[in-house]
Design a protein that fits this description.
The structure is a single chain. By secondary structure, this protein is mostly helical. It has two domains: 39 residues; 31 residues, no CATH class. Helices cover 79% and strands 0% of the residues. The protein is flat and about 55 Å long.
Length: 71
């Protein structure tokens, strides 16, 4: 692949990531609304920590830190 092809591939991945991010944020908003209705705290530090650790452990070792930053 030449540089133009590589950049085009990255642009396509960026679009997919953005669409997935928006979808995730919309669902997270629904989770927050549900928690509020149930009288629960919206932010759960233990759950956040567990989620980040799980994601980092599933990422290739060379991208663990970037995975945590992303999420």
């Amino acid at each position: 692949m030449d540089l133009a092809d590589i950049r085009q591939a990255i642009d396509g991945i960026d679009t997919t990531l953005l669409n997935s991010f928006v979808e995730r944020m919309d669902i997270a908003t629904e989770v927050a609304k549900s928690k509020i209705e149930m009288g629960k705290a919206v932010f759960d530090p233990a759950r956040e920590r567990s989620k980040l650790n799980n994601l980092a452990s599933r990422a290739p070792e060379r991208y663990e830190a970037q995975t945590i930053t992303l999420f």
